[in-house]
Structures
1.
Amino acid sequence: MLIKEIIDKLALEGNCTKEELLYLLDNIADEEKEYLWEKADEVRRKNYDNKVYIRGLIEFTNYCKRDCVYCGIRRSNKKACRYRLTEEEILSCVEAGDKLGYKTFVLQGGEDPYFTDERLEKIIKKIKRKFPQNAITLSIGERTFESYKRLYDAGADRFLLRHETACRELYAELHPGATYENRVKCIEDLKKIGYQVGAGFMVGIPGQTNEDLVKDLIFLKSLQPHMVGIGPFIPHVDTPLGQCQGGAAEKTIIMLALTRLLLPKALLPATTALGSIDKLGREKGIKAGANVVMPNLSPNSVREKYALYNGKLSSGDEAAECRRDIERKINAIGFEIEVGRGDSKV
Ligand code: SAM
């Protein structure tokens, strides 16, 4: 089968076999990449028109009890300069964000035991009391079913928990002390509770093959998440993978486009990581099917400290306060910012 035929089948049926996906990843040529991006754009426009949703990202703690070997805020990185925002600081980010037109706040952090259910419930309820129309997305790692439920009942709407890789062996190598089974159980728990759920993975993590990437796509197709975060792996010098090569922007964009074809209604961010390795990464991601951007709303004083990888952008187009510039750039490539909660159509 020709690669263009596989792409046509994906665009028409939203599915193909794992052999076809692998054949495509192993053999796709430049001209076929352009075709893939065009088809992904077409499918996105059918579902979301030319709208791009914006979310304000608040990175509220970089303390983390996990030791993921790729991550700059892993607990073993003694050079990381740790911080956690106070409740007041989080609330003032939210207020500033609302004024700038952000109607979804993404609260992301390391797995920080300081943020107990009680503390998080209090923060979520305060945000919801002040901004009942706005959505809260949590991205705070693995917790128990009961904990997720309490935070949902307090008012959280969505949860991002990337599965990171659907290859069990690779997952185990990358996440000392953690298991793929529990990661997936957490994602399933979140779905059961009623959250709009985001999964996702890194592209180009050392040891990852095209077979592994196909497993990621098949996993996502069966999970049917509302959102999918896909970004390149980027090394951080103070981690065990610090000297490894990072993932490529083009491969990341291919994975974004394939995800758009497999999950036509998913919300797909053009990630900060993609924008960090390629000046035009965000625009290219949007043209290839991404429809969300998440600029940084954290206080300026902590942005550099949330260093998951080296060279992470937090200014310019990644800074929430540059809302007008972000809008201008998105308009320049033929898209429009959608102001509103931007719920998924899944
Ligand atoms: N602790 C939460 C969790 O586990 O989901 C959220 C924070 S975690 C730092 C957010 C995401 O950052 C992870 O899901 C991972 O995919 C990404 N990340 C971490 N280190 C990275 C790196 N070196 N390169 C690219 N992405 C990275």
2.
Amino acid sequence: MREFNIHQNKTVALKYIAPEAIDAYLAQCGDRVMCVVGFGSSRCAALKSGFPVLWVDTPVSGCDAVYEVWTSDKPVTRYSDELMTGAGNEDLFFGCLSARFVSAVDLSETALRIYSGIFDFLQRGSYPNLLRVWNYFPDINAVEGGIERYRSFSVGRHEAFVRYNRKVEDSPSACALGSHGGPLVIYFLASRFPGVQIENPRQTSAYHYPKQYGPRSPTFSRATLAFQGDAPTLFISGTASILGHDTVHPESVILQTRETLANIRAVIDQAGKQGFKFAGFGTGMALKAYVRHTEHLNVVRDIIRAEWGGLHELVVLQADICRTDLLLEVEAVCWGSAS
Ligand code: 3EB
């Protein structure tokens, strides 16, 4: 059998695995598996390994489902309590949570409760630093009780940051997308070591967005740079066609895709100024694109491929974006070369 070496010098690695390959992949990874998230419109069968799967109801371009699998270069220990399941080693921890909610207002309360639970957990344990958070919930653009679900979510999340004295400038990288059903689903990566927050010079920091985007600004950084191990890892937040704080090219998926990729490049360049040596698009980048309209899935994928060629990992999902005029959002993980 071929030598299994996804890690090279990566402290955490990420792979997108098809349903028919997932059991074999997890068996190979053994006690290095930190987190498994399934994306698809129908839930797949339970895994042979029994590893818990956090499920996000979003159609996947070109297949029924895909698994996002995070692995560590060191063995991890599984964790579970009434709030979350997770896995960690001495430096890094992945946590997975989900919670039902019934309305936009309830979503705010639920986000506050969940984030408070996360911060409690982080403060108690050996991973006080929140590096990256993924947020998914259905009907993200629905307006209920006079407020959009996304904005209401941002209010509850912001309140948790305030209550736990988390400075917005130290916010994790993040994304927030609309799934097609199910609960609020959150997973996160936390670390023993603080990350370095990266902002995009082309964009207003999200935590300084003006009130026109909601009563409380979203608490995320454009990227976080984690310096664990031999080579740093750059976690780039969901990135969209925004300049300053304005959506640009609302009518054109092609121009929105190009602007989004320009923003990602700007974040990588900024990280370079703060010590990151990018290993390059071919081996050093995993990318997850979210596209609002099914008919745009291929054009977004084609532009990404034309710009950056054969990426290490690329998955394209259909999901709603948190601003109604945004047609897509792209997140990325970049690995650095050892310095
Ligand atoms: C933006 O730049 C687009 O609320 O956690 C991107 C990444 C976006 C994260 C979040 C929202 C979030 O404002 C939307």
